[in-house]
Design brief:
CATH topology: Pdz3 Domain
CATH superfamily: PDZ domain
Helix content: 10-25%
Largest sheet: 7 strands, antiparallel
Shape: globular
Number of strands: 7
Structural class: alpha+beta
Order of helices and strands: EEEEHHEEE
Distance between the termini: 49 Å
Number of helices: 2
Radius of gyration: 16 Å
Oligomer: single chain
């Protein structure tokens, strides 16, 4: 590992390269998929770190992960599962006209839903 190892080539992306395609980041903690970051200020009023994702368009998250494992490449099932979870919203195949309904349970045990739509720049908008 030295100066010629390409793994150590780092660069700072320009403003045009930075785009958050998912306003919410998820991570599997135990048997649940939880919110670990919310990048949208409007959405952060409703969705918080620690909220558990239950369903996407009334489809249970566990089933959704299993269905989408073959859509990603990874050296192990755990790697593929992680990629599916991180790209949860983009893997739904949602077009600009599609509405996604995400169902959550918060840390107090209350359930709630959030309706989202992709705008023309493929960024998430709350309805």
């Amino acid at each position: 590992m030295g100066a010629f190892d390409t793994h150590f080539k780092l660069y700072l992306p320009s403003e045009d390269d930075i785009e958050i395609d998912n306003a919410i980041k998820f991570y599997k903690i135990g048997q649940h998929v939880e919110v670990v970051a919310v990048f949208d200020t409007t959405m952060s009023r409703q969705v918080h770190c620690g909220d558990k994702l239950l369903k996407i368009n009334n489809y249970p998250v566990r089933d959704y992960i299993r269905k989408n494992m073959q859509k990603v490449v990874g050296s192990s099932a755990g790697t593929r599962e992680g990629k599916v979870i991180q790209r949860m919203l983009s893997l739904t195949g949602a077009s600009r006209d599609s509405v996604l309904t995400l169902s959550f349970v918060n840390v107090r045990g209350d359930t709630f839903s959030l309706k989202l739509k992709l705008n023309p720049k493929k960024r998430v908008v709350i309805l």
